[in-house]
């Protein structure tokens, strides 16, 4: 078996209360690495594609990686991979925390959970001091009814106090229990955010998973690994990551507003007149702020702002989705809305996208909820609470904008801001047309983490408001690179520090695993992982017609910038070229 791996995964069936290790062959690990890649392979291996994602037999995978536990900066990450209850396509959410390190120290490269516990439960994996029977996984289910309705943070604190401080915990909030289709899984204040993995866990009656272990893996070339790690950490303090350290991702807000690419009032505009109120610059000037980082990260991009008595971590995606997209310009309200989503365990992008859509439907008279008005902070906060509890209109909005449009009718699907059911992140597709392609073809739907095509739009490689076929190979490059980063796993905010990412990734992987891996092999690995996601989607019933954008983006130029116009025919041509270059 390769260094850096345990060569097995832990499979837990919570219906039967049983657990066993299953082998992972070297060949599988080398071809799919870890994280997203290994997670997709495991889903295919488990024949998960045709299963209802909220059914007991649907698997959910927590996949670690060969780099977890190494001194490489930002490597303490894991992927949660399942069929999405929001899109019914592949979903992989990445997150950083001690949960990744604890999971790997449980002596496995992934944990697969199937089944449905008889009542709300904790899954406890305790692989500490288990010398006597190392092949027997120590897994137990305990009742968790007393945590019903508890927020993510409350649950994590209660479970840690019940089991001990050396456990690392991932939990769902009330939204996951209530099967909100875009519920998150939370751990150490971070979230596996998109696509509804929290609902998958909720459907299994799992409130939290607690892990501790003491199994380590060996590194093939420890001296080389130390040198590579030192070099990477040093570069992580340099100019390529300054943006993240200084103002964080929130600095995108004013920049996007200047470009006319800041989605506003359900994508009816690319500029927001109150953008300055929500800007990182303004938040920094008016609120005391601290900076934190994920475990094992030298960058530290988390900017935490005071909001009354609370401290709130906020990213650009939450600021745009709960701010400009809903027309809300009061920073205190947006911070509170983001905090409330975190407490309930709700993806902020899908929450903001669905609420903004409902606001426009109410404005057009298609939805009899007159209180749902753009710009109303009260309405925003009320809608979030209703979604988390699935009460009133919240029951419909908890289904996401695509399903809600199906009920609302009036061809409202034309303005539902989603691709394959996943709400669109904060990049106006008409103003950033390489990103429009990235959204359209994304395996998990509209996605800024699996396609970095916006980088192409902000470069001199394309005319971002009139992108042609020449952009396609650049979009593919960003998607391949993301697939590799999500499988190794490394934080994408490191990407700017690499001169030759594939060569350096091969060097890291050689020092960790001992494989004679090359940059060319890793190019193939990245493409294999992207293709595996597509293979999964094909098995779920994907059709080429899904690789598109909502009608709004294809028949209406951007009102604040009429030159930003993307026709159905031109997008279809870009998508066809993408499929051709992929060889699909
Ligand atoms: S750069 Fe930010 S998101 Fe990435 S690992 Fe560090 S703190 Fe976490």
Describe the structure in brief.
With 584 residues, the protein is an alpha+beta fold. It folds into three domains: 8-213, Aldehyde ferredoxin oxidoreductase, N-terminal domain (Aldehyde Ferredoxin Oxidoreductase,  A, domain 1), CATH 3.60.9.10; 237-423, Aldehyde Ferredoxin Oxidoreductase Protein, subunit A, domain 2 (Orthogonal Bundle), CATH 1.10.569.10; 433-582, Aldehyde Ferredoxin Oxidoreductase Protein, subunit A, domain 3, CATH 1.10.599.
What does this structure look like?
By secondary structure, this protein is an alpha+beta fold. The model has no long low-confidence stretch (mean pLDDT about 95). The longest helix is centred in the C-terminal third of the chain and has 22 residues, at about 520-540. About 40% of the residues lie in helices and about 15% in strands. Helix 2 (about 35-45) crosses helix 22 (about 520-540) and helix 18 packs across helix 24. The chain has 24 helices and 17 strands. It has 3 domains: about 10-215, Aldehyde ferredoxin oxidoreductase, N-terminal domain (Aldehyde Ferredoxin Oxidoreductase,  A, domain 1); about 235-425, Orthogonal Bundle (Aldehyde Ferredoxin Oxidoreductase Protein, subunit A, domain 2), CATH 1.10.569.10; about 435-580, Orthogonal Bundle (Aldehyde Ferredoxin Oxidoreductase Protein, subunit A, domain 3). It has a 6-stranded mixed sheet. A 4-stranded mixed sheet has the order 8-7-12-9. Strands 13-14-15 form a 3-stranded antiparallel sheet, with helices on one face. Iron/sulfur cluster binds next to loops.
């Amino acid at each position: 078996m390769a260094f850096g791996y345990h060569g097995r995964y832990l499979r837990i069936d919570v219906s039967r209360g049983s657990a066993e290790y299953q082998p992972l062959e070297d060949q599988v690990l080398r071809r799919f690495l870890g994280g997203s890649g290994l997670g997709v392979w495991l889903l295919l291996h488990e024949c998960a594609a045709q299963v209802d994602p909220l059914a007991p037999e649907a698997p959910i995978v927590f996949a670690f990686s060969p780099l977890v536990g190494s001194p490489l900066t930002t490597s303490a990450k894991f992927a949660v991979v399942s069929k999405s209850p929001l899109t019914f396509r592949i979903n992989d959410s990445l997150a950083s925390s001690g949960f990744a390190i604890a999971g790997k120290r449980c002596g496995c490269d992934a944990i697969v959970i199937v089944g449905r516990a008889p009542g709300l439960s904790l899954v406890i994996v305790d692989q500490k001091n288990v010398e006597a029977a190392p092949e027997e996984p120590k897994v137990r289910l305990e009742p968790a009814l007393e945590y019903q309705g508890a927020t993510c943070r409350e649950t994590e604190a209660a479970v840690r106090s019940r089991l001990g401080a050396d456990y690392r915990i991932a939990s769902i909030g009330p939204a996951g229990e209530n099967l909100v289709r875009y519920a998150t899984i939370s751990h150490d204040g971070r979230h596996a955010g998109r696509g509804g993995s929290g609902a998958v866990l909720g459907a299994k009656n799992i409130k939290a998973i607690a892990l501790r272990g003491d199994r380590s893996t060996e590194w093939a070339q420890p001296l080389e690994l130390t040198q590579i790690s030192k070099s990477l950490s040093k570069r992580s303090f340099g100019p390529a990551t300054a943006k993240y350290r200084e103002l964080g991702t929130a600095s995108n807000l004013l920049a996007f507003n200047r470009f006319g690419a800041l989605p506003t009032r359900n994508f009816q505009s690319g500029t927001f007149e109150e953008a300055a109120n929500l800007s990182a610059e303004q938040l920094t000037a008016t609120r005391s702020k601290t900076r934190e980082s994920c475990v094992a990260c030298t960058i530290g991009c988390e900017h935490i702002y005071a909001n009354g008595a609370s401290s709130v971590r906020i990213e650009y995606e939450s600021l745009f989705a709960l701010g400009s997209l809903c027309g809300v310009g009061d920073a205190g309200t947006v911070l509170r809305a983001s905090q409330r989503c975190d407490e309930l365990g709700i993806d902020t992008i899908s929450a903001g996208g669905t609420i903004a859509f409902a606001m426009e439907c109410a404005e057009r008279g298609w939805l009899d909820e007159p209180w749902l008005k753009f710009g109303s902070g009260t309405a925003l906060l009320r809608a979030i609470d209703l979604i988390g509890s699935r009460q009133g209109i919240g029951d419909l909005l908890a289904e996401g904008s695509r399903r809600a449009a199906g009920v609302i009718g009036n061809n409202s699907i034309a303005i539902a801001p989603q691709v394959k059911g996943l709400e669109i992140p904060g990049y106006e597709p008409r103003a950033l047309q390489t990103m429009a392609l990235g959204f359209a073809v994304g395996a998990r739907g509209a996605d800024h983490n699996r396609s970095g095509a916006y980088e192409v739009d902000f470069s001199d490689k394309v005319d971002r408001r009139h992108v042609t076929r020449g952009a396609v190979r650049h979009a593919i490059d960003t998607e391949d690179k993301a697939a590799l980063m999500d499988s190794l796993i490394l934080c994408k905010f490191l990407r700017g520090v690499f001169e030759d990412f594939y060569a350096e990734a091969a060097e890291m992987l050689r020092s960790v695993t001992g494989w004679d891996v090359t940059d060319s092999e890793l190019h193939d690995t990245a493409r294999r992982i992207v293709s595996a996601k597509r293979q999964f989607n094909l098995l779920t019933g994907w059709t080429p017609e899904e690789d598109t954008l909502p009608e709004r983006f294809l028949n209406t130029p951007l009102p604040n910038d009429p030159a930003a116009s993307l026709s159905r025919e031109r997008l279809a041509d870009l998508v066809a070229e993408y499929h051709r270059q992929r060889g699909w």
